[in-house]
Amino acid sequence: MIFAKPSARTRVSFETGFEWMGGHALFLGPNDIGIGKREAIKDISRLFSRYNDLVMARLFDHDHITELAEYASVPIINGLTDYNHPCQIMADIFTVWEHRADLEDLKVVYIGDGNNIVHSWLHLAMRFPMHFVCSCPEGYEPDPDTIQKARDVGISNVEVIYDPNLAVKDADVVYTDVWASMGKKDETDMREKIFKDYQVDESLMESSGKHTFFMHCLPAERGREVTDGVMEADYSIVFDQAENRMHVQNAIMVYLSENK
């Protein structure tokens, strides 16, 4: 497990899950390996392929994960990059299915910064038909090329709606994330002013007009992007969502181990 970006949930879910399945997980933190700096990525990829059955990497630069995959002879799992977070969204859609019992006529509304979580939802919308809405301030939209790709596939309705109260109408799921992702914490004060109208509170949840689940990939900054009341509400499924990270990642590792 290569961690250029630290994370409690990603490390514990992968490490505990792999140990439960009879494997041994080795953690390499930012001080153990300077990926792309101290050593060429293609060298690390080929070396670790000779030591390990699987490599999971949580990185900043998305090009680094693709280069790892290009030179590896074992499966490479994307544990997060600045561009996307596929394991998280696979766990998310599993959690939605678990609570709804189906994925028919699904409307998911993301409130906040058009970040890596949104990009992964857009990629999922290329595979599962859904109505996906990103509600964000102007200038903080997700990558336009990824939006266009999702629309071009033609199986999902993909929208960017700047008014969060309008966006959440008839939503099955309201999803949010921190306003300043890792690597952008120096923008926290500025973003707090820009995103103040995008907080998910009890009033916004009620604006959906139906029973709507609340999701958050965690860690949550309670009182900023979401209120404590929403986090603790009976419609909040954030901890089922967090638990399912481990189960879904275990499934990914089993699948990759059997099909490499």
Which class do the helix and strand fractions yield? alpha/beta
The fourth-level CATH homologous superfamily of the largest domain is Aspartate/ornithine carbamoyltransferase
Count of alpha and pi helical runs: 11
Radius of gyration: 18 Å
The count of strands amounts to: 8
Strand content: 5-15%
Summarize the structure.
It contains eleven helices and eight strands. It has helices at 8-20, 41-51, 62-71, 86-100, 116-124, 144-153, 164-167, 188-194, 202-206, 228-231, 238-259; strands at 2-3, 55-58, 76-80, 107-111, 131-135, 157-160, 173-176, 213-216.
Lay out the secondary structure.
Elements: E1 2-3, H1 8-20, H2 41-51, E2 55-58, H3 62-71, E3 76-80, H4 86-100, E4 107-111, H5 116-124, E5 131-135, H6 144-153, E6 157-160, H7 164-167, E7 173-176, H8 188-194, H9 202-206, E8 213-216, H10 228-231, H11 238-259
Helix pairs in contact: 1-11, 2-3, 4-5, 4-11
Give a verbal description of the structure.
The protein is an alpha/beta fold and 260 residues long. The chain has 2 domains: 2-82, Rossmann fold, CATH 3.40.50.1370; 86-241, Rossmann fold (3-Layer(aba) Sandwich), CATH 3.40.50.1370. Helices cover 42% and strands 13% of the residues. The protein has helices at 8-20, 41-51, 62-71, 86-100, 116-124, 144-153, 164-167, 188-194, 202-206, 228-231, 238-259, and strands spanning 2-3, 55-58, 76-80, 107-111, 131-135, 157-160, 173-176, 213-216. The strands form 2 sheets. It has a 5-stranded parallel sheet, with helices on one face. Strands 1-2-3 form a 3-stranded parallel sheet. Helix 1 crosses helix 11 and helix 4 (86-100) crosses helix 5 (116-124).
